[in-house]
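The instructor's notes for this session suggest beginning with a concrete chain rather than abstract definitions. Hand out the sequence below and ask the class to guess, before any prediction is shown, which regions might be ordered.
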Amino acid sequence: MGVALVVICLVLPLLLVEAVLRIRHYYRFGTADASLYAVRVDPVSGLTIPVAGQTRGSIHINSLGFRGPEISMPKPDNMMRLAFLGGSTTFCAEVSSNEMTWPHIVWKTLSEKWPNVRFDYANAGVPGYVVESSIRTLESRVKRLKPDVIIIYDGINDMSKDTRALAEQQGISRGKIDDAGLPGRLSLTWFLIEKNLEVWSRERKAASGTRHLVFDPVALSTGFQARLHELVLKARKVAPVVAVATSSMKVRRTQSPAEQLQACNTALYYNPYLTVASILATMAAYNQAVRSVAAETGIVLVDGEDTIPGDSRHFADSIHFRDPGSRLMAQRVTNSLLASRSFQQWVQQKSHN
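After discussion, reveal the predicted structure:
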C-alpha cells in the first residue's frame, strides 16, 4: 500500500503537468498532438511535403498539399496566381490560423486592392526547406500551377545548413538537433524539458569562451548567392513576376547583450557553434546576397527586414512570426509588389482579360 501511494504521488503530478502542457499546446496550435501536421515523401521531388487534405488545429492543407485554401486546376485564364517558396517562415506554423500566414495576408490585400481581378495563391513553403529544396519544389510542384508571381523567402535555413557543414569540417559540431528519444516522443513534457535544457546550455556556451566556428560570413554567403541566383533564373522561366525577400530575425544590433542572447535562443539551439555576433554578421551577409541577386536579375526586391520589430510580440522565437509580425511581413511584400512596374503591368493585363 505504501509503495502504491508513493508511485501515485510521483506519477500523478507528472500526468497533471503533461495534461496542462497538452492543453496549452492545443490552445496555441489547435491540436494536443506534438506533431502539428502529417507529412509524406513526394515520389517526384524526394522532398518531405504535407499530406494533402488534412486539417489539424489551426493548420489546413489543401488537396494539392499546400497550406491554404483550394485553388482551381487547371488554372483559369483570368486568374492572377501567386506562389510562395521558402521554409518554416513561409509556412508559418506559429501564427493563429491559415488566414494569419503572411502569404494569405498578401493575397487578401491584393484582392482588396484590385476587386475586379481574381487572385489565388499557393503557399509552397515547408519547414526545413533550403534554396535547393525550393528549386525542386518549383520544378515538381509549383511550375504546373502556372503562377503569375513567385515570391521567394529563403536564407535562414541555408545559413544554418552552411554553418553546420563548416562546423563539422572544423570538428566542433555539437550533435543532432530535435532528436528526441522514446520518452520525448511519448511525452510532450519530457520533450520540452530536454529541449529547453539544451537551449539553456547552448545559450551559456555561446556566451562563454567555448570554441566557436571560425569563418568569413561574406565568403560563406557566396554559395547561397549562387544557389539563389539559380532559383531566381528558374523562377523567371515559370512566372512573369518574381520577388525575393531579405530575412527578418528577432536579434538586432541595437539590443543589449542580454536581449540579443535571448533573441538568439532558438538560433543558438540549432547553431550552437555560432555566437550572437556571428549570427548578426552572417545574416547581414546573406541578406546582402539577396539584394545582389535581385539587382543582377532585375526582379522585385522585398527589403526592410528590420521594419518588423525584434520583440516577442512579433516573433515567437528567433525567426518565426507571431500574428503581428506576419502582418508586417505581408506589408513588406505587398508594398514592394505595388511599387513594381512589372507587377502593376501584369495586374492591368489580367484586369482586361
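Then share the key points. DSSP finds 13 helices and nine strands in the chain. The radius of gyration is 22 Å.
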